[in-house]
Amino acid sequence: MVKRCKGKGALLLIILLGISLPVLLVSCGGSDGGGSSTPATVADFSASPVTGTAPLTVAFTDNSAGAPTSWSWDFGDGSALDNTQNPSHTYATAGTYDVTLGADGPGGTDNVTKVGYITVTPPAPPATVAQFSGTPLTGDAPLDVQFTDLSTGAPDTWSWDFGDNTTSTQQDPLHTYAAGTYTVTLTADGPGGPDNVTKVDYITVGTPVPAPVAGFSADNTTGAAPLTVAFTDNSTGSITGYSWDFGDGSALDNTANPSHVYDVSSGTYTVALTVTGPGGSDTFTQDITADPTMYTDDFNRADNTVLGTQWTTPAGCSELQIVTEHAVATDNGVINCAYWSWNPFTADQYSQVVGTFVHRGPAVRIQTGLTLPNFYFARAQNATTLEIGKSVDGVLSIIDAPFTVGGLLPADVIRLEAVGDTLELFLNDSSVGTVTDNTFSSGAPGIFIDVTGVTLDNWEGGSL
Q: How confident is the model at residue 447 (pLDDT cuts 50, 70, 90)?
């Protein structure tokens, strides 16, 4: 609908619903009487666009007749009047707006109102754009992953597919994965419509590595101080680091197979090995006893004080006498009696044995140059030959032929065992050979290990 109001000499035209009504000439004043007149001002305008979504910018064009020289625009949205001829105006909010143009010129004043001329619709909601993140993306099973919705467009519903046949409708779900590689999809929906995003192989979960199992062995667990102990790592599993605590206040050792010297006078020390790997850590402990005066045999029955004159003898075992710094032992037919000696031998006819002696036999005879009758013995004749002999009433003799072995080292262990009338010789727990002899009865003294010409740190023997 267009409404028009004329001033002097103006024509009133009403157009309603597209139907032209009869023209009515309204005279607001006389002519100048001279037979000529100035063209009347007729306000009119057009605009583009006249419809759209907010914010809508509309360009207005003055189409008025009569050569107006001033204009007044009312855009119908409460904004200030505009006095330019061809203004541009932005409608910020949705609605339907009447626009009025007032035009003034030599031909007078006129205005026109176009009702409901501008139609502004609400803006379309922003499109939904699905997006997300997860943390952590890698790790060992079971792996908890926190997902965060990063979608734009104000979505109000979510659908997650975690790639392991499980789903969720939460906005920011927490999900636990087993081992494997997983593709994750998020579908988000809201006023701007649905959208989805898929991240291929987004989550990688590994199989957990088990913790290592600590373990070690020691070549000496008891002995006189200073005591040198070589440790051997027996740990299993995936290991990336070692930490040895020797229990004596010394610095930690990070090597796999350390050697340590306990140089204090005496004490029992708990050695702890901690191993660390991708799956965690584990600790193993073992006691080491360094004591120059107290010793226990392999049967854990014989303690002794070797620097004095008194030995503690296990019940049922014969006495072991101390003669100055030389020791003599008799067995008297009692089996499973074992003695320790820390005293070094002197340089006598059997040469010298040094260090701490390890004995496994049920009975041990210690010979230091004294004449002792009736015992079997084993000895190193030289660096490559071992032999088995016997002493009968103080007379030594070799039984059968000697045994040839590889070059002996100070750490080698010679051992002689007797079962019935069979004597078997061992080197480092490996059998060298056997001989047969029945000179002594089962009640005879035990077996003596004799070293000649070669210094050995360890020796041991057993009874008949």
A: very low
For residue 310, what are its two tokens?
């008194």
Q: Which amino acid is at 407?
A: G
- 435/378 Cα distance (integer angstroms): 11
- DSSP code of residue 39: P
Q: Which residues pair with 109 in a beta bridge?
A: 104
- Give the number of other Cβ atoms within 10 Å of residue 277's Cβ: 18
Domains of the chain: 2-121 (2.60.40.10), 132-206 (2.60.40.10), 216-290 (2.60.40.10), 320-461 (no CATH)
* Mean pLDDT, the chain, integer: 73
Q: Is the sign of the CA dihedral 320, 322, 323, 326 positive or negative? A: positive
Instruction: For residue 142, give Cα distances in angstroms to 31, 34, 118, 136, 212.
Output: 101, 106, 63, 12, 19
* Three-class DSSP category at 213: strand
Identify the pLDDT of residue 77.
97
* pLDDT of res. 311: 36
Q: What is the pLDDT of residue 37?
A: 81
Q: How many residues does the chain have?
A: 464
Cis bond upstream, residue 136 (ω within 30): yes
From edge to edge, which strands make up the β-sheet containing 45-48?
A: 45-48, 56-62, 88-91
Pull the structure tokens for residue 282.
């584990």
Pairing of the two strands 19-20 and 15-16: antiparallel
CA distance 377 to 451: 10
The CA distance from 161 to 177, in Å, is 13
Q: How confident is the model over 209-263, as pLDDT tens digits?
A: 899 999 999 998 877 667 889 999 999 999 999 999 999 999 999 999 999 998 7
Whole-Å CA distances, 87 to 51, 238, 406, 421: 17, 81, 116, 132
Contact yes or no for 320/309 (Cβ under 8 A): no
Q: Is the pLDDT of residue 51 over 90?
A: yes
Q: Specify whether the CB–CB gap between 385 and 405 falls below 8 A.
A: yes
* 285 token code pair: 């402990």
Tell me which residue of 34, 29, 23, 35 sits closest to 9, measured CA to CA. Answer: 29
Say what the pTM is. 0.41
Q: Which two tokens stand for residue 56?
A: 């809508």
The CA distance from 97 to 272, in Å, is: 89
Helix (H, G, I), strand (E, B) or coil at 308: coil
Reading the block at residue 188, the tokens are 């988000």
- CA separation for the pair 373, 442 (Å, rounded): 15
> How far is the CA of 447 from the CAs of 138, 314, 374, 415, 416, in angstroms?
67, 19, 10, 9, 7
pLDDT tens by residue, 287-331: 998 754 433 333 233 333 333 333 344 444 443 332 223 333 333
